[in-house]
Amino acid sequence: MKKIILTLLAAVSMMMMFLPLANADMFVLYNDNKTGDGAPVDLSMLTINEFKTWSCDIDVSDNSTTAVSVAISGNQCNPAHCSQSRLNKYSPMAMALYSLNSTELAAGFASFSIVDMPVQRIRASVVALSGGTNPYVTVRCTGVR
């Protein structure tokens, strides 16, 4: 009996450890070679839209780029509860602002996380981009419940 209980406890512990991974989804929020806003992703259209924690990667195609800063913004609007004019309003302060340091610029890659920031719509903006030869910036974020 003791062995069965220990086995059940181990199984439940493993399920709890991997449960957040089952409720994750990755979104490409930006893919361009200039500063500006990426297209917003409307999470309210998804079956699981309660993503609160975000893990984001910034991929830069040219490792001779001298500056890259990315802002992640979100809002609580969805088409059922906000007018069309309010759907694409975002705070100028953003949820997160990330600037790549010299090591990340040389690698052409950076990662960061945003914790406890649930949103209905999310987008990335490249707010600074300089140096390099026509560098493309791709921002991918995975939302986790």
Structure commentary:
- About 20% of the residues lie in helices and about 40% in strands.
- With about 140 residues, it is of the alpha+beta class.
- The chain is globular, with a radius of gyration of 19 Å.
- About 10% of the residues have low confidence.
Instruction: Please give the oligomerization state of what you see.
Output: single chain
Q: Any low-confidence stretches, pLDDT <50, length ≥5?
A: 5-22
End-to-end distance, in Å?
A: 35 Å
Biggest sheet: strands, sense, closure? 5 strands, antiparallel
Radius of gyration: 19 Å
Percentage beta strand? 35-45%
Number of strands: 9
Helix content: 10-25%
Mean model confidence by pLDDT? 85
| Class derived from helix and strand content | alpha+beta
The helix/strand series, from N terminus to C terminus, equals: HEEEEEHEHEEE
3D shape? globular
Number of helices: 3
Q: Which terms summarize this structure?
A:
alpha+beta, globular, about 140 residues, 4-stranded antiparallel sheet, about 20% helix
